[in-house]
Each structure stands twice: as C-alpha cells, then as structure tokens.
Predict the structure.
Amino acid sequence: MDLTELNGIATAMVASGKGILAADESSGTIKKRFDAIGVESTEENRRDYREMLFRSKEAMSQYISGVILYDETIWQDAKDGTPLVRLIEQSGAIPGIKVDEGTQALPMCPGETVTAGLDKLAERLKKYYERGARFAKWRAVIDIGSGIPSMTAISVNAHALARYAALCQAAQIVPIVEPEVLMDGDHDIDRCYEVTQRVLNKTFQELRVQRVALEGMVLKPNMAISGKKCARQASVEEVAEKTIRLLKACVPAAVPGIAFLSGGQSDEEATAHLNAMHKLGPLPWGLTFSYGRALQAAPQKAWSGKAENVAAGQRAFSHRARMNGLASKGEWQSSLEKKAA
Ligand code: 13P
C-alpha cells in the first residue's frame, strides 16, 4: 500500500469548492428514478443519461472531484465508443466504483440489514483498478425505529465496512466508508444524533482494529437531522451545529475528508445545510458533498429521456453542482437559486 498516494487521492476527492457525484444507483434504484420521469430503464437509456452528466463540461471540470459508478456503467462506452470512465478522467474528475452488493436481512434482528459483497471483493477490486477506479464505496444502512438499531446491526455493519476498507487500501483504492443512518422515521434530531454517534464510534473502532489507515479514506455520513415524519423539523442552523459537534466528537482529524450523502433531503436543503456548516469553521477535515438525489433530481426532470433536452439537463446539473461547490466553501446564498436558468 502506498499511503502517500491514497492520501493524495482522498484529499483531491474533498478539495475545496468540489464534491462527489454519486451516480451509482443500482438497477432497481435507477428504474425507480426513470419511472418518475416516464423513461424506460434500458441499458441504452441508462448510458445516455449518465453520458449526459459526464459530458457536462462546466459541472465536471469545476465542481465535481469524483464520480461513483455502478458496475454496469464502469464497463460501458459512450455513443462514440469512448469508455465512460475516460470521459470522467478527461474532465479532470476521478472515477470511483460502488462495490457493495446491497443489503440483506440480518438473521435474528427483525427489520434490520447487513450489507453484502465481501466475497471475492479482492478480485473485483483488482479489475476495477485496471479499468481506472481510484476509489470505491460501500454503504451500510442503519434504520431508526422502535427498539432499533440493535447493537448487533451496528456491530456487523461496522465490521463489514472495515473489512471492505482494508481490502480497498490493499488494492490501492481509497475507500469511501458510508454508514448511513436513515432519515425515514418520525424520530427527532437528537435521536438521530445519538444513533449516529454510536454508529460512527463503532465504525472507527473497527477501522482501527482492522488497521485501516485513516489518512487514506473518506467518510460518507448522514447529517444529524430530524426524521422525515418528525413533527418538529430542526432548522438549517440546528442541523449544521449538531452535525459539526457530532463529527468533531467522532471523526479523527487524520481523516482527510467527509462527504455527505443527501439521503432524501430536498436539493436546496442539502445545499443550505452544507453551506451553514462551513460558517462554523475552521474544520479539521475537508467537508463536502457526495450527493445522489440532491444533484440529479433536477437534471433527470429537465432531460426526461429526450435527446433534444440534453443541453437543458446539463444546465440543470451544472447549476446544482455549482450551488453545492459554493456551499462547500460557505459561499452559497439562497438568492443564487432564483437566478437559475
Ligand atoms: P443520496 O445523496 O441520494 O442519499 O445518495 C448518495 C449515496 O451514494 C447513497 O449511497
């Protein structure tokens, strides 16, 4: 393992003013997104859509540091035969790959899951590296509900995250470690805080036990935020203040960067929260976005599967990427949203 190189990649992934595009929706998830805009989820449509994003010059060259791909996409070519991975590299962004294989029911723990995909991971990482991937992602999912999460679910998911991270570093790939505490329930922000704290503490304990070099990884956490169905929705300032307090308590300064998931927040909420956190600096790590939905909802709608809408889709993507790029420096203002095309 060359830790200097891993640290350089991790640092570039969270460079100020830039963030990560999570375009790694599984076949099932992208079908849901396409259903919502009336587009059939064929291999060609998925390629055309992602090619549109990766060819968005302004967004990709100025505001996107890296792109997380799904297995299908990393092997796909653009319409003109150029591998999609090369399009990403040519824009100056770093290609990455989702390597987990989704969640499975966790035995003895009703309603809870553990993430699969460790079998043969070392071999798969080797092939992804050869294709150009320089970082990877593994998502663990922790749900909050009555009597959950159990310590069992937290523990097995943290263990798997650390197993994955160590395998990545041995393959000279930067692991994005993503323990996502879902915002689906009716719990309040303080319960989210408390659960996320337990999850992060256990995750870093496992990372240490399994000798993962913190300097060569990126953390992708949820924010401390109210559950979607909670009657009291915390303000932007409260989310920012509690999230920074939580991360400072749990994430060692050796970690080069933290890149949030959006997890179901609206586009503008996700941007406003990141921006507000940067008002609370200086911070010990790079702090940016690794959004899926909050970057793609607008371009998906603008594109709607029609070739004549590609330019509009790219404009919508570039706008959201720029807004989040500004938020990653604390320079975003809501008035900038209204000036959008
Ligand atoms: P969202 O921003 O839509 O939560 O997606 C990010 C991601 O990669 C989840 O694994």
Summary: Residues 46 and 198 are 37 Å apart (CA to CA). The chain has a mean pLDDT of 98. Residues 22, 139, 178, 261-263, 291-294 surround 1,3-dihydroxyacetonephosphate (CB under 6 Å). The two ends are 46 Å apart (CA to CA).
